[in-house]
Automatic annotation (TrEMBL):
Pfam short name (any one): MDMPI_N
Organism this protein belongs to: Streptomyces rugosispiralis
Source taxon at top rank: Bacteria
Name this protein carries in UniProt: TIGR03086 family metal-binding protein
Domain Mycothiol-dependent maleylpyruvate isomerase metal-binding: 13-126
Length: 188
């Protein structure tokens, strides 16, 4: 079976869904490497992004309202993730131009952006709850290559969407290299 960018993204989403399901009650308030959010806020952010991008990509029907409570997030994450994957699978979704936070981009670029966002935040979540994020290595490598060009174009300083990139050894795992590219401190 060949892996398409959308099926690779679905695999990333599935891995994160398992991580969300593994969050223990006392871990929802734990800090994350994404310093402005605790675990609950991080998962809520991912669900909100999934909702927003599913709509941008043409999801039908409209998605239900969001509830940031931990137990609701455990139920909502897989539902909103499935809606986003379905939207990316829609006819012409990867070819049409859509509005992303970085501006107008082809749907294929939006898919890269969402895959990278989910990989990095999946890394954040896994570290926060003491789990391992078992993403497909080929997907992580491919998105790291795409992200290198993206990171070079991102604004820096106060208000920037990511902290400055950090240096890591070239032999570091691909997921750690990707996280460091978007400002994550691997030593914490």
């Amino acid at each position: 079976m060949s892996t398409t960018p959308v099926t690779a993204f679905a695999g990333v989403i599935d891995t994160i869904a398992h991580l969300v399901e593994a969050v223990e009650e006392e871990q929802w308030s734990a800090p994350t490497p994404c310093t402005e959010w605790n675990v609950q806020q991080l998962v809520d952010h991912l669900v909100a992004v999934q909702h927003r991008f599913a709509v941008v990509m043409g999801a039908q029907p409209p998605l239900p309202a969001l509830d940031p409570a931990p137990e609701a997030l455990k139920k909502t994450f897989p539902t909103s993730a499935a809606a986003l994957v379905a939207a990316f699978e829609g006819p012409g979704a990867l070819e049409r131009t859509v509005r992303a936070p970085i501006g107008e981009v082809p749907g294929a670029v939006a898919l890269h952006l969402q895959t990278i966002e989910h990989l990095v935040h999946g890394w954040d979540l896994a570290r926060s709850i003491g789990q391992k994020a078992l993403f497909d290595e080929a997907t992580v490598e491919r998105e790291t290559e795409f992200a290198r060009g993206l990171a070079a174009q991102m604004p820096s300083g106060p208000g920037a969407p990511f902290a400055p990139s950090r240096t890591v050894p070239e032999d570091a795992p691909a997921l750690d290299r990707l996280a460091a590219l978007f400002g994550r401190d691997l030593t914490e």
